[in-house]
Automatic annotation (TrEMBL), chains A, B:
Gene3D superfamilies: Farnesyl Diphosphate Synthase. Its cofactor is Mg(2+). The keyword Transferase applies. It comes from Rhodococcus erythropolis. This is Geranylgeranyl pyrophosphate synthase.
Length: 330, 330
């Protein structure tokens, strides 16, 4: 096509290839293996391609999310919209640099989403597998976009309820990151309804527990380990389940604590103020609440997995992945 | 999913259903009929659904383009990002209203693009038809996103060449609006390579001629007929082929005219100033150039269509559509 499109696309390519933990393809692949997929079988390559298409959905989600959250760095590099903003400014092109950067990033995110579809459609999986995968693929994208919408909508509306925060966890994180990828892997193989149910229970529970761990690390994490500033979520004003639980307890029993929380969230807190809010949240019992909930979820997930027909090897691997997701300190 | 997602989606639904000329599905459907498709046959409904999926791609393109172009109205209603910006302001939610509107519109555009894929995949067309359609569908989306990228990139870089403007016409308009929809219709039926070639030649030529007519109307159109302000493209600073041709002629022969054009484009011109620029563009011969080019393209398109194996009825219909696209005054 000419005109610099190829160069712009190479930016997207570099973004996708330069890093990321490949969590979603890993769960999908493990889901396929666990259902009985043979990694040395003739369909393994097609399945790998179908699983890898999840990374292009994720590229769209990240590129567009970074515009929405006005994030400036991602994976140690400027975000895509900032990269094109910088190019525009550096070349002294006409018009508004920030707007140009966002415009290009919107289009490249769209391209990643379109190519995700191309990739799964052209993966080489059988027509039967494609038919089984179709509703899962469809649900996953509708859900993650819904989760992102709920996230910004809750924040704008100032919805402080645990229910609202939990709904974002359910769709933006759990369904998109673990439940549906596992479901996709099972559908690729043609697993029966019982294994799919077990995977979905496991994925939802571990996915929510993963996010709850993230909530704790976002407030209590050690910056030298997490790589994020101390009390990051408090300063950023994130309406997490942890915060919503603390607020609910404070509203019921400790109006002064509730005021401290509401006045502090989303402001430029000093380290001392972060420490104070941490103590308040802990004293209210919210940390214990969340830790208990993580334990309950992890146990329920383990039960669902253990009693499933997944292969022994995949059970061990999924258990390791569940531990890594929910017991981590970074 | 709850949390207001359904209501947000209903805004997208209303946007898609409230209007638009359905140009792309019409060309796709006519392409299918022309290849021999039977509108009373058993596969007609599935084909209609596959063609209609083009409207969801278009919904994404419009919703995202309106952010990129900072447009405030579309089809007589506020654009999607403005609608959510207004809601945010009206409800006195927290954060920046304009940013919220854009964020929601980015997500709803993504949803339309994802649903376009869902719609064609679940249209009920045969696996063979789906396999034939796949590369066309894929090319079309990559091309239109490329055309949009080239459009904003040319504008930012101040690329004044006819070549650059023509490249945008080729991909953003011709390929996306006529060539690929016709190709898609032919692929749905399973037409042979000769008919596909004829359709593509016809579609590219008429598509470019359509855009050239648009260029003329954007400068010379009667506001009471076009519904757009007088000299709209000049004020908006659109780098059309018409303008690029005028500039090329002026640079070669009339530096004073070139200066007038460069100083005038993209500024808040009065009606008198618009009249002056119109006269300059006409006197330079650019209008004659563009009219000649339209005639040449329409004739080449007619030849390609006439000598093709398309049905007589579809030839008549496509000719009508070509005339409507290239001889219009609105």
């Amino acid at each position: 096509m000419g005109g610099g499109y190829e160069k712009a696309v190479s930016t997207l390519e570099a973004f996708v290839l330069r890093g990321g933990k490949r969590v979603r393809p890993s769960f999908a692949w493990t889901g396929w293996l666990g259902a009985g997929g043979d990694p040395n079988g003739s369909d393994a390559e097609a399945v790998i391609r179908a699983c890898a298409a999840l990374e292009l959905v994720q590229a769209c989600a990240l590129v567009h999310d970074d515009i929405i959250d006005a994030s400036t760095t991602r994976r140690g590099f400027p975000t895509v919209h900032v990269e094109f903003e910088d190019q525009h400014r550096g070349e002294e092109w006409s018009g508004d640099s920030a707007h140009f950067g966002e415009a290009v990033a919107i289009l490249l995110g769209d391209l990643a989403l379109a190519w995700a579809d191309d990739m799964i459609r052209e993966s080489g999986i059988s027509p039967d597998a494609a038919a089984r995968v179709s509703p899962v693929w469809s649900a996953m994208r509708t859900e993650v976009l819904g989760g992102q919408f709920l996230d910004i909508s809750n924040e704008a509306r100032g919805d402080e309820t645990v229910e609202a925060a939990m709904r974002v966890n359910r769709y933006k994180t759990a369904a998109y990151t673990i439940e549906r990828p596992l479901h996709l892997g099972a559908a690729l193989f043609g697993a029966d309804a019982e294994l799919i149910d077990a995977y979905r229970t496991f994925g939802t529970d571990i996915g929510i527990a993963f996010q709850l761990r993230d909530d704790l690390l976002g407030v209590f994490g050690d910056p030298s380990v997490t790589g994020k500033p101390s009390g990051d979520d408090l300063i950023a004003g994130k309406r997490t389940v942890l915060f919503a639980m603390a607020l609910a307890r404070a509203d019921a029993a400790d109006p002064a604590a509730a005021e401290l929380l509401r006045n502090g969230i989303g402001t430029q807190l000093t380290d001392n103020e972060v420490d104070t809010l941490r103590q308040v949240i802990t004293d209210l019992g919210a940390v214990t609440d969340v830790e208990t909930q993580i334990d309950t979820l992890v146990e329920a997930a383990a039960n669902a997995l253990d009693s499933s027909t997944a292969t022994a090897e995949s059970k061990a691997r999924l258990t390791d992945m569940a531990i890594a997701a929910t017991k981590r300190s970074y």
